[in-house]
Amino acid sequence: MKLFFKILLVLALSITGLNAQNTIQGIITDAETNEKLSLVNIYLPDLEKGTTTDDSGHFILDNLPSGNYTILFSMIGYENQSMKINIPLDDIIKISLDPTAIEMESIIISTPFHKLQRDNVMKVEQKTITDLKTNGAVTLAEGITNIAGVESVTTGLGIGKPVIRGLSSNRVLVYTQGIRLENQQFGGEHGLGVNDAGIESVEIIKGPASLLYGSDALGGVLYLNPERFADKNTSKGDLSGNYFSNTQGFSSNAGFKSSSDHFKFLFRGSITEHSDYNTKAYRVTNTRFKEKDFKAGMGYQENAFKTEFRYNVNNSKLGIPETIGEQSKNRTPMLPFQDITNHVFSSKSTLFFNNSKLDINMGYIYNDRKEFEDHHDHDEDEHEEEHEDEDHDEHLEAALHMKLKTANYDIKYNLPQLGKFETIVGVQGMNQVNTNYGEEALIPDATTNDFGVFATSHIHFENIDIQLGARFDHRNIDVDNGLNRNFDNFNGALGFKVNISEHLTARVNLASGFRGPNLSELTSDGTHSGANRYEIGNPNLTSEQNFQTDVALEFKNDHLELFANGFYNSINNYIFLSPTGDFIDNRPVYLYAQDDANLYGGEFGIHLHPHPLDWLHIESSFETVTGKQNNEAYLPLIPANSLTNMVRVEFEKPWIEKGYAFIKLRTTFDQNNISDFEITTPGYSLLSAGFGGSFSVFNKIMSVTVSGNNLTNKTYINHLSRLRSEGIFNMGRNINIGFTYNL
C-alpha cells in the first residue's frame, strides 16, 4: 500500500509539471430578465471542485488542469445546465439559466460518463437524503422505498435490504464511498448496514449493470454518494436530530468539514436508538435496535492530481423479532439479536493528463457479524434483566460469528475524446475471505477472487446518443472443505437515447448480466437462526445469466412531466430456496435449487405543476412487477403493485425559505401472485403528510421537518415483511420531528 501511494505521488509530481495551472471565470444571468444571479452553484464533477457566484453573478475557479471537463450550473428555481469545456479557455463563460418549477437534476455518478440525467443513455433514479427524510423515513432502507420500482425486504424496523424490480440480496449491488459494499448480504435478515448520516444522495440503476460492476449487479445497483467536501477555503458544521413518536426513538448526528487550497477533511458521527415499534394492537417484541456510526475523510488536490481517503465504522445491535411477547419500551435488544461492526476504508485518486484521466479506486471492508440465540443462556428471565447492561454482551457466546474481509480495486482510464466518441476501459477485482469463529458455522471458511475487464463508449450525435460496451469476468471460490469452483462470463450492453422532439425523449437499453453463486448457495449446511430454517446448499449450481430490455419514454415541459418505463427480464438458472417439508432441529429444511425465470413490469407516472400555480405539484405514480419460473410458478418476495398520489406545495416567505407541505396516499394492492410456500397478502392504503422549511436562528440557518406516516393507524402487513408468516403487523402511526442547524 505504501508503494502504491509513492507511485501515485511520483506520477502526480511529474504530471503537475506537464499541466499548466489554469483559471476559468464566468457570469451567470437570468434568461428572462437578464439579471445577474448570485449564489449559483458551479461544480466540476470530474475535478470535484466548486464555487458560487458573487453578488454581480461572477465566479472564478483556479488551479485547474488542462483537458476536457463537464461543468454544472445549478440554483433552486432554475433549470440546471451543463456544458463541456476545454481548459484552458480564452473567453469568459456566459450562461443564462431558465426559471423553472421542475425539480433540479444533478450529475449522475453511478454511470461512467457523469452526465445530467436528461443527457444519460441509461435511466437512473436519483434522490437526495434530504428528500427522503422529508417523507419521515426511519432508516435509509425504508427511505429508498419512496423511489418508484424500489422496495425493501424487512425484518422489523431496523433490518431492511433493497429490492429493485423484484430482485434483492446478492442480485443487487450496493456501492458506498465509491466501492462495493460486502457484508454477508446473502441472508434474508441481513440488512443494508449503512447509516444515512454523511450520505448526500442515492442513485438507483434498475436492471443489469454487470458491464460496469461485474457479478452481483444482475438486478441493479444502489449507489450511495457520500457528502462532498467543503468548497475551497471554506468551513462548515451542522447538528441534526430526529424524534420518532412510534418507537420513542431518536437519531442525531454532527459533522464538520473544511478545505484549504489543497487539503480538505470532514468527519461526522451519529447515534440512533429505537424501542419496539408499535401497532394499533401491540408493540412488536424485539424490533428495537441501536446504531452508532462514524465517517471521516481527507483529501488532497494539486492541479493534475487529486486523492481522497474515507473511513466509515458502523456498529449495530439489532433485535430479531420472532413472536409477540414482552411489551416494553426498552431500547436494548433481547435475545436473539445481531451485533454487527462494519469498517469501510476507501481511497479514490485521479491523475489528469491532457484530455484524458486515470481513476484508481481501492477499498477494504471488514465485516464482523455476531448472532446470539436464546438457548445460549441458562435462565432467560435472568438474562433479560442482566442484558439491560450492554457490557453483558461481552459474556455472551455468539452462536454464529463470521468475519468477512474484502479488498477490491476499480481502475478506469478515460481515453481522449475522438470526435463523437467518449471511451472508458477498465479493470476491477475483489479478494474476499470468510472466516468462522462461532460455535456454529452456516457457511464454511472460503476465499473468493473476482477479476473483470471491460470497455464502454458513449457516441454523440445531434438527436441521438448511443452507449455500448463489453466485459469479461472470472470468479473463483476456494472452500476450505475442498470445493473449488470457477465461473467465467461475457456480458454486453447497448443503449440508445433519442430526442424525438423538444419535449419527448425515448431510451432503449439492452443489457446482459450475470451472478456467480455465492458461498451460502453453494455450501450452506446448518441452521440459519435469523431466518429460522435449516439451509442446505448445492455445490453444482451454475451462474445466473440474464438479458433485460428496458424502454423508457419521458415527456417534459415547464408544467407537465410524464414517464413510462417498461422492462422484461429473462433470467437463466435463477437460484432460489425451496422447502423440502422436512425438519432438522425443529426447523424447516430449505434446499437451494435452480430454474429459468422471467420478471416484467414497469413504472408509470405524471407530475403536474400548472401555470400560474408553479408552487403547486400534483404527482401520481404506479409500479408493477411480476416474477415467474418457467413452470409458471410465481417467484417469492415479489412486491405487490402500488399506486402513489401526492399533492405538494412549495413557498417562500420573509420568515421562511424553501417552505413546503405535502399530503400523500399510497395504495398497495392485494398480492395474490405468490410462490408455493408463501401466503397471499391483502392490500391497504397509507396516508402521510408533512411540512417544513428553513429559518434564520441566531444568524444561522435551521431547517425543520415534521411528517406523519400511517396517519390513520392502519393495521396492515407488507408482502415483503419477513414477519408476515407470523401474522405480525407493520408499524402503526408515526410522527417524526427533525431539525438541522448549520453552525
Tell me what you see in this structure:
The structure is a single chain. The protein has six helices and 38 strands. It is mainly β and 743 residues long. The model is unreliable at 10-18 and 376-386 (pLDDT under 50). The chain has two domains: 2-97, Immunoglobulins (Immunoglobulin-like, Sandwich), CATH 2.60.40; 117-742, TonB-dependent receptor, beta-barrel domain (Maltoporin, Chain A), CATH 2.40.170. Helix content is 6%, strand content 55%. The relative contact order is 0.10.
Write the layout of secondary structure elements.
Elements: H1 2-18, E1 22-30, E2 41-44, E3 49-52, E4 58-64, E5 67-74, E6 81-87, E7 93-97, E8 124-128, H2 129-134, H3 140-143, E9 150-155, E10 159-164, E11 172-176, E12 179-180, E13 199-206, H4 210-213, E14 220-226, E15 234-244, E16 249-259, E17 263-274, E18 289-302, E19 305-319, E20 337-353, E21 356-372, H5 380-386, E22 400-414, E23 421-436, E24 446-460, E25 464-479, E26 484-499, E27 504-515, H6 519-523, E28 525-528, E29 533-536, E30 544-556, E31 560-584, E32 587-608, E33 616-629, E34 642-653, E35 656-668, E36 684-697, E37 700-709, E38 734-742
